[in-house]
Amino acid sequence: MVVNKIRSRFKKFPFQKEYYTHAGKWALYFFIIGIIAGCGSIVFHYLCQLGIHYFMDLLAGYRPPSPAGEHHLLSPTTTPFNRWMLFFLPALGGIVSGWLVYTFAPEAEGHGTDAAIDAYHRKGGFIRSSVPIIKTIASSITLTTGGSGGREGPIAQIGAGFGSFLATTLRLSDRERRIMMAAGIGAGVGSIFRAPLAGALFAAEVLYKDPEFESEVIIPAGISSVVAYCLFCLVFGWGSLFEAPDYKFRNPLELGPYLVLAFVLVATGVFYVKAFYGVTHTFRSLSKIPNHLKPAIGGLCTGAIGLFFPHTLAFGYGFVQKALDPELLINVIPISFLLSLAIGKVMTTSFSIGSGGSGGVFGPSVVIGGAMGGVVGKLFHQFMPGVVAEPGAFVIVGMAGFFTAVSNTPISTIIFVSEMTNSYQLLLPSLLVCSVAYLASQRWTIYEKQAKSRIDSPAHAGEFFVDILQSVRVRDLMGLVKKVELIPQDMTFSEFKKYFSETKQHYFPVMDQHKRLIGIFSSTDIRSVLFAMGVENLILMKDICTSDIIVTTPTDDLNSVLQKFTEKNIDSLPVVRDDDPGILIGMLNRREVISFYNEMIQEMKERANK
């Protein structure tokens, strides 16, 4: 009996081989994307480590500290610190990077995440196959010669580029290519920062300014991100990027200082965005200077800042690691150092990437936010030690709040920082700070290619067009349905000519003796007999009309109405009763349907912008 019950259930829900084959095929695609993104992360990390050793260490004698989760591949050299070499090194890197980018792949300049966002919304997810390769080499040169930037931009383009390449090779649709490209973004970012969950959420959230997720991206990005993360950690070891004490939120009074932190981060974030794009627009306006030389000029400006504040160069993650140590933060690291790190990092990042160099903006945001969090935490600890007993917690929350303020990605950023620091006890203050920072800074974003919402994305334009039209019925437009006179079927053409000369109608319904609709004709249909002589009294209107009538009813949706308009390229449809297609209610014009749709879209956008 039990067996029979099981069999009956399987009959209700039959095993669909095609479904599981399809799902397995796509899982394989995302698995492959994860492998390639993970390998890309490994290669890029090796290049960065080697570059730091041979450029920063060997040439300039500069050995910035590393986060706890990273270790030098090669032993440090004995080269003495050379401040002047550090001044010229970013410019040398800018020359090589600029030549590579503007010679082989100009779209690889700047921070790669924005280029990937643009490809998702406006290019059908298409990225040239050469872009990830050039981006990898150019970014590693920029970042290891002193240029300030992050690793997420290059690795996002590596993963996105392969996802796009695989989809193009398999001749998949634009929608499928976009999903695979976004899966590559999540895999690359999740692996290089050892935050697989955050990588998947980031790929789905960073596409929009509004708090929206690209839901169809989360699962594919999750699969790819987990695979890439495991591959990366098999090579470089498991664990989080930063090592932090077990900070905990215990005192509700701390929420006051955290609220102050949120507004400090917003102000710093606005300064960052304005400085970054101010520098970017300035360099773009220098039309007389060849593009491939601009990163060298930006590198020289970066080196000038690094001459006095060397800690603002390259990645800077090690300084955040030091600020996470409560003993160092309270007793050793001065507020002036943290301020110079934050403000200097804003400027060096703006010059390094805004001039056309190659690198990401998430990494510098982590450093800037952590430094500003340390400043606020130290100040409140000095004046309110009973309330703020652990200023290092402000460093972690500052990382999350600052990037939220400049990227409009509150949810994924909270998870990012929690995974990067292995600190999940600070989710409550992080949620407060990120929420306030997001609400206060929506006008500004470091990702200028973000769409405001799904309805504003060209990638979803067709979907929303159909969705909106299907939600509206003809009965909602009854005010636009025009009453018209029915033409008797026995009216002669001679009589109709007199009527035609006095009307502005273009479509003429024809009725029988019971005043029921039997046909229709247009002004175009009468051209052949309009100037015929001697037959005007012989031709009846039932001879001209067509009985193959395309009609609509009050319960039809506007999507089906537009399909009927285009079926025979007609401009007006008879609206008949649902229960009796022989009774005409009126005529509905295509132009007025389209006008109605445009008004609906405009109202939706206005409501969304309020």
Could you explain the architecture of this structure?
The chain has 610 residues and is mainly alpha-helical. It folds into three domains: 24-236, Clc chloride channel; 252-460, Clc chloride channel, CATH 1.10.3080.10; 471-608, CBS-domain (Roll), CATH 3.10.580.10. 60% of the residues lie in helices and 4% in strands. A three-stranded mixed β-sheet has the order 1-2-3. It has a two-stranded antiparallel sheet with strand order 4-5.
Q: Layout of SSEs?
A:
Blueprint: H1 2-12, H2 17-57, H3 83-104, H4 112-122, H5 130-144, H6 152-169, H7 174-192, H8 196-205, H9 215-236, H10 255-285, H11 294-308, H12 317-323, H13 326-331, H14 335-354, H15 362-383, H16 392-407, H17 410-421, H18 427-440, H19 461-470, E1 487-488, H20 493-500, E2 507-511, E3 517-522, H21 527-530, H22 541-544, H23 558-567, E4 572-576, E5 584-589, H24 590-609
Parallel strand pairs: 1-2
Antiparallel strand pairs: 2-3, 4-5
Helix pairs in contact: 2-5, 2-6, 2-7, 2-9, 3-5, 3-11, 4-6, 4-7, 5-6, 6-7, 7-8, 7-9, 8-9, 8-17, 10-14, 10-15, 10-16, 10-18, 11-14, 12-15, 14-15, 15-16, 16-17, 16-18, 17-18
